[in-house]
Amino acid sequence: MAVFACNRCGKCCVSLGPHITIERQLNDRDYYCRCKIDNALFLAQVDPAYREEIADTFTPEDQDRSSPEKRPCIFLRKKPDGDGTACAIYPTRPVVCRDFRCYRMLVYDNRGHLSGKVIGAGEISTPDEALAQVWKEQIASIPHVHPPGGNDPIWVRKVAGLLAIHGYRGDAVE
Ligand code: SF4
Ligand code: SF4
């Protein structure tokens, strides 16, 4: 089983602004926040590199907006060196963010090269046309019930078995 490695690209955070909201600012480091996806309250501690920036950005009125429009999470910030984005509360981010996997299985060809990433149970990202075809015709419609932050073991067995028949190896991520 592969271990999921988040590269902190921030792509999953660009529309989560309406779902991760600050309920109360305690000081320039600590904020009581709510994750509206599971309605969980959590204490966010902001990394020193982003404290001033976030304290300056934060306005209670913005957080009260109930608009469903997509906007970035307030804790998604440009890295100080300008190279990509980062979560400013990474060690204290909410459970939903910890559990999120932007892919749930890696698929390798018979030479051990990475051929595709399974994004959801029904979707694969791959440049390999043969794999895409197998996926579409035999795998995409396999029923599944994935638990939060995990994989449906029956789905994993079925998918890995079908991939093996076609010369691929499916490695589910933890
Ligand atoms: S979970 Fe995926 S999309 Fe989100 S930051 Fe990590 S690598 Fe990027
Ligand atoms: S709390 Fe961090 S990981 Fe979660 S959506 Fe916001 S920036 Fe992304």
pLDDT averaged over residues? 89
The span between the termini is 7 Å
H-E order:
EEEHHEEHEEEHHE
Q: Kindly provide the radius of gyration, computed on alpha-carbon positions and rounded to a whole number of angstroms.
A: 19 Å
Strand content: 15-25%
Q: What ranges have pLDDT less than 50 throughout 5 or more consecutive residues? A: none
* Tally of helical runs: 5
Bound ions, cofactors and other small molecules, one mention each: iron/sulfur cluster
Can you list the strand order of the major beta sheet?
8-7-6-9
Q: Which structural class fits the helix and strand makeup? A: alpha+beta
**What's the total number of strands?**
9
Domains counted in the coordinates: how many? Answer: 2
Note the overall shape: elongated
Task: Please give the share of residues in helix.
Answer: 10-25%
What is the makeup of the main sheet?
4 strands, antiparallel
Description:
By secondary structure, this protein is of the alpha+beta class. The chain folds into two domains: 11-99, no CATH class; 105-172, no CATH class. Helices cover 24% and strands 24% of the residues. The chain contains five helices and nine strands, in the order E-E-E-H-H-E-E-H-E-E-E-H-H-E. The strands form three sheets. The chain has a four-stranded antiparallel sheet with strand order 8-7-6-9. Strands 1-2-3 form a three-stranded antiparallel sheet. The protein starts with 19 loop residues before the first strand and ends with a strand. The mean pLDDT is 89. It binds iron/sulfur cluster (2 copies). One iron/sulfur cluster (SF4) binds next to loops.
